[in-house]
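Model it.
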Amino acid sequence: MRWRHKPGAGHWLNGWCCDGKCSQPLLAGLACWLKESLALISRKSDAATAINYTLNQWAALTRYAKDGLPEIDHNIAERGVAMYCMIGTCMLNGINPKVYLTHMLDRTADHPVNRVDELLPWVVADLLPRTGTLD
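Modeled.
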């Protein structure tokens, strides 16, 4: 298994990837298993629908293994979208996003997960300075 750094990958740790050569045998085994499993289950089952979807998207699913440059997931983009949404929500509620993020980071470690709704921007808006600017 060879590891190499991808150019333009941002953070140095995110930029390390396994060469596609180590993924290709695993993907080939997965394809065989999916096809074998499909033959054993009802064509109308949810599992069959999921397997057929996976097999129909196989070229896109395995593209990352061909040269190692594409990412296997969209985590970077998803984090960006989540951050953009958080900033927009803060601004709609008249909260400085930096202040809100600091407020969140100060509280999330000790806050019960089943009460996370108490930390939403519109809930804590009255506790934070009322400014919608990014300074």
